Amino acid sequence: MCTILLSIHPEFVDKIMNGEKKFEFRKVKTKRKPDKIIIYSTSPVCKVIGEAEVEDILVDKPENIWSETKKFSGINKDLYIEYFNNKDIAVAYKLKNVIEYPEPIDLQSLGIKSAPQSFVYI
């Protein structure tokens, strides 16, 4: 078990925080199994906004993952299909116990110099 920091676009961070998006999609599964995700909101916010526990990690064909996650995907099907275009595998981190920090945090305070392209282990 470990903690990862994910870079997520602000519009999706908002949907995670309000409960509309309960799955975070990725094209690659982490080698180690995360039990917590630290949520970094990308530009223009550029801050760590909160965290969530990982309830489950779904790995399957993109069409199967969509069928299982679409109700709480926080995105439309066209965007999902575009994101996983030509991919054989989709990864969906099922989030629970989402916490929004009272004050956003700078990456430097976590010992991270710059935002990861996808994720970084903490």
UniProtKB/TrEMBL annotation:
InterPro entries linked to this entry: ASCH_domain, PUA-like_sf
Pfam families, per the entry: ASCH
SMART domains: ASCH
Gene3D superfamilies given in the database record: Hypothetical protein (2.30.130.30)
Domain ASCH: 6-88
Entry protein name: ASCH domain-containing protein
Origin species: Vagococcus acidifermentans
